[in-house]
Amino acid sequence: MDTDTSDTPADLIQEDEEALFVYETDYEIGQDNIEVAGLDIHNPVFFLSAGLIILFSGLTLLFPTVSSQYLTAAKTWTLQSADWLFALTAVLVFGFCIALTISPLGKIRLGGPSATPDFSIVSWVAMLFAAGVGVGFMFYGAAEPLAYYTDWYGMPLNAEPLTAEAERLAYSATIFHWGLAPWCIYAIVGLSLGFFAHNKGLPLSIRSAFYPILGEHVWGWPGHIIDLFAVVSTVFGLATTIGIGATQAASGLGYLLGFEPNVYIQILLIVAMTGLAVLSVLRGLDGGVKLLSNINMGIAFALLIFVIIAGPTILIFTGMGQNLLAYITDMPALTNWVRRPDIAWFHDWTIFYWAWWISWSPFVGMFIARISKGRTVREYFAVVLFAPVTIGVIWFTAFGKTAIAQFKSGTGELGEGMSSASLVLFQMLADLPASAITSTAAIMLLVVFIVTSADSGALVVDTITSGGKTDSPRRQRVFWACLIGLTASALLYGGGTDV
Predict the structure, then answer these.
(1) Distances 229 to 6, 55, 290, 363, 369 between C-alpha atoms, Å
(2) 32 and 42 in contact (C-beta within 8 Å)?
(3) pLDDT at position 145, please?
(4) Which is higher by pLDDT, 5 or 200?
(5) In the chain, what are the domain boundaries?
(6) Which of 111, 273, 352, 448 has the fewest CB atoms within 10 Å, i.e. is most exposed?
(7) What is the rounded CA–CA span in Å between residue 234 and residue 221?
(8) Per-residue pLDDT tens for 223-247?
């Protein structure tokens, strides 16, 4: 008797289900590419995006004062004029994520019914954390709660500083900025790209998400403009983050070694970290981003445990539940954009963050799409939304409680208040045991987070500018890693990370 079961009804049904997932299009991945000097690049997206970014970086380096004025004016106008749009986008995206999670669509698996995950849960979460918020957690982990508590740069909801209400809002507002809102934005972009690439057979590129709307026109100039916007947005969003990380790393080195850091030292650090990113790029996704992300998660976890044990342990553990509850109860008031009593704070903090997250969404979303194949939609949202939020509540509570406790007790340098946001982490660690070791570990963590972000960003931008190919020559990713570093240096030289 023939025992071959390869054509059983169940197998045929599964094959039919997978066939339904593929769009019929004459477009082939990379068909618009040209080969130049060993490169395999999309024409015209590569040339337009690289040209615009190089032009901006060059002008900023040549005319830093004028550039700073224009960039600051553009940022101020955007935050004040489009505040409602950024706030409304965050609300709508959050609702859409919840609806997809609980709907029958949650059973869909990225890559089709038989797809299997490429990475373990631990590696998956590590890469999400490293690429999405790692640098920000280091910079703002202690600084943001302390800033809100002491009215260092405005108070959320016009709370009275140094009060119980101010302390509650210090944590709820910080978690609000780093919690569900950014990850909902990333998750929607990532799911859209992952579904159309892994399930519909389209290129892994931002334009593919617009295929249901634009049809075959997405392969022409409308799609070129979409990808161009995605590349420019990604590079500048990454450059801002790298600049922030370099500022803190330089401050930490200066604090430990006793020198005053300046913009040239910050740029020198960016150059060094760009070099490390290039080495990571050359090792590929598994040997580069995955390896660095796993190492980083280990160091970050060790630093977190140290702060919990060496800091006000009981306050930290009791504060985790309290801060999560405060985050949930304060969310409606913090989300509202109509007749805010704290409009200046709302623009300078919340809307700035929302704009930052949106500028990052093509990069983080596309990176998430690439590493999430084999996950169901429900599993995808459960991990992409709630794993980083859980880590965020624990992280900001531990670092925030420790910093605020030092301020309240008047011990250490934080006992005198904040002087610089980039120094708060190191001032906090200085009042704990083994500060030289932990501060060095913090600098290492910052550097690896920045390298991981630059490497991941180069990977994503290269995929877009190579027509959706994921096996393009590595020298292209090296080019983009270097250009991201150049842009970060230009932004710092032209006015710092505030612009």
Answers:
(1) 46, 15, 27, 11, 18
(2) yes
(3) 98
(4) 200
(5) 33-493
(6) 352
(7) 20
(8) 999 999 999 998 998 888 888 889 9
